[in-house]
Amino acid sequence: MKIETAHKILIASAVAFFAFFACLEGFRFLRAGDASAGLMAAGGLGAAALFFVYLRGYLRRLRGEDRPGPA
Questions:
Q1: pLDDT tens per residue across span 41-52
Q2: Per-residue CA distances from 3 to 12, 15, 24, 47, 51 (Å)
Q3: Cα–Cα distance for residue pair 52/58, rounded to 1 Å
Q4: Burial class, 59, CB count within 10 angstroms (exposed 0-12 / middle 13-18 / buried 19+)
């Protein structure tokens, strides 16, 4: 397996994990009204978003879309 493939899998699994974690904490916040669960849900969503943005940029760099074209 190439290192690029392993990196894509690792970052995509981080996005999925943090999104799942945010959902669990969000349901806990809605059910119990626990403020710390709300903060954890927001943090999980933020982490998922940051990892997603990183993954999207990484994939673009692998495809060469960020390189400047000929002048």
A1: 999 999 999 999
A2: 14, 18, 31, 23, 18
A3: 10
A4: middle
Contact between 27 and 50 under an 8 Å Cβ cutoff? The reply is no
- 64, exposed or middle or buried, with CB in 10 Å at 0-12, 13-18, 19+? exposed
> What letter would DSSP give residue 2?
-
pLDDT tens per residue, range 25-44: 999 999 999 999 999 999 99
pTM (two decimals): 0.82
Look up residue 12 and give its two tokens.
């995509």
